[in-house]
């Protein structure tokens, strides 16, 4: 019953086998390995983007921060949701790597930006000329931090607003595969065809040991990204071990299969919770995350039995009345089983009058 995050899950055997295979013999460093060529070809094919440039880094924070640094000068701002990962969970890395660019936070339901709110925020920015921070870049998170998903049409509508002001668009795709499986569109339709300029293409949260790809649909930005990656200490010497993971991820659509498993587990969990007395979903469960609340007694039973998940927000406590609702975040991974979900639901259901 491990629902703390999808990054707590093990690595699929196909990835470990690829790492073992990559460990034989010698390979050129710094991304000049043959496996990186395979990664580049497979991503270009999957995204129908033959001219795209692709680079690997080890963390999502690096992927996002370095991407934004290429798109936003220090005197400008990144328009994003109030609950975007770049705002809540990256310790100021986007501001650091851009040299001080501000984040302009937009508050909309279920962590999904709307064209109207985005347009209002952009139009209000820079009104005082040199005295104000300037318009920089729009960053979208798909899947969102609330477990919701932008459709390809919704991405296109937001990109239309951004392009109307001459702004580039970055997509934080730490859970891009989960969003894509849910949306039922192609990678191209979700990204460059909709107007996205740079994608942080996640791997770690979907089963990899530790690698993310940055996909630059505009190759003119490639050299700057290479320099920023090196200067930012994110260019790996033994790069083949990053390449091996990403190559295995892309072979035989493993990345989509892993995401489909995680999404299916989350659907089972969300439907099960929604059916329990005293429980309700806080956001639509569209990818592999579930946000819900239920009576405190159910939380006590689950956590006493060893279930791992976060009370959300984290300042809640298990001390207090049994019937008082507490909210939580649960994330399913590729390795979450039906048995895991059903055991958790039985614990939550229990007897609501039980005392700790």
UniProtKB/TrEMBL annotation:
EC number: 4.1.2.48
GO biological process: L-threonine catabolic process
Co-factor requirement: pyridoxal 5'-phosphate
Molecular-function GO terms, alphabetical: L-allo-threonine aldolase activity
Keywords: Lyase, Pyridoxal phosphate
Domain Aromatic amino acid beta-eliminating lyase/threonine aldolase, first and last residues per copy: 3-292
PANTHER family tied to this protein: L-THREONINE ALDOLASE-RELATED, LOW SPECIFICITY L-THREONINE ALDOLASE
Role played: Catalyzes the cleavage of L-allo-threonine and L-threonine to glycine and acetaldehyde.
Protein name (Swiss-Prot/TrEMBL): L-threonine aldolase
């Amino acid at each position: 019953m491990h629902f703390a995050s999808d990054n707590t899950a093990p690595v699929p055997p196909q990835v470990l086998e690829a790492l073992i295979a990559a460990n034989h013999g010698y390979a050129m460093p710094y991304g000049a390995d043959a496996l990186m060529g395979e990664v580049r070809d497979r991503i270009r094919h999957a995204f129908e983007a033959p001219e795209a440039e692709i680079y690997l880094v080890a963390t999502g924070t690096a992927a996002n921060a370095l991407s934004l640094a290429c798109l936003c000068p220090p005197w400008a701002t990144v328009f994003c949701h109030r609950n975007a990962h770049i705002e809540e969970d990256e310790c100021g890395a986007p501001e650091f790597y851009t040299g001080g660019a501000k984040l302009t936070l937009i508050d909309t339901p279920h962590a999904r930006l709307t064209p109207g709110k985005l347009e209002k925020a952009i139009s209000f920015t820079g009104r005082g000329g040199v005295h104000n921070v300037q318009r920089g870049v729009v960053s979208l998170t798909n899947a969102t931090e609330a477990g919701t998903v932008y459709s390809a049409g919704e991405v296109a509508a937001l990109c239309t607003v951004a392009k109307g002001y001459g702004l580039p668009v970055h997509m934080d795709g730490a859970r891009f595969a989960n969003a894509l499986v849910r949306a039922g569109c192609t990678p191209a339709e979700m990204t460059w065809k909709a107007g996205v300029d740079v994608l942080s293409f996640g791997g770690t949260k979907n089963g990899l040991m530790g690698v993310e790809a940055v996909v630059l649909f505009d190759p003119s930005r490639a050299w700057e990204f290479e320099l920023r990656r090196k200067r930012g200490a994110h260019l790996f010497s033994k790069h083949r071990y990053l390449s091996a993971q990403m190559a295995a991820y892309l072979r035989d659509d493993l990345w989509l299969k892993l995401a489909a498993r995680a999404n299916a587990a989350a659907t089972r969990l969300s439907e099960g919770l929604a059916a329990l007395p005293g429980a309700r979903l806080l956001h639509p469960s569209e990818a592999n995350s579930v946000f819900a609340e239920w009576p405190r007694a159910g939380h006590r039973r689950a956590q006493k039995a060893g279930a791992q998940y976060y009370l959300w927000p984290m300042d809640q406590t298990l001390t207090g009345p049994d019937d008082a609702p507490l909210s939580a975040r649960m994330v399913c991974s590729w390795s979450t089983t039906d048995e895991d979900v059903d055991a958790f639901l039985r614990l939550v259901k229990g007897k609501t009058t039980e005392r700790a």
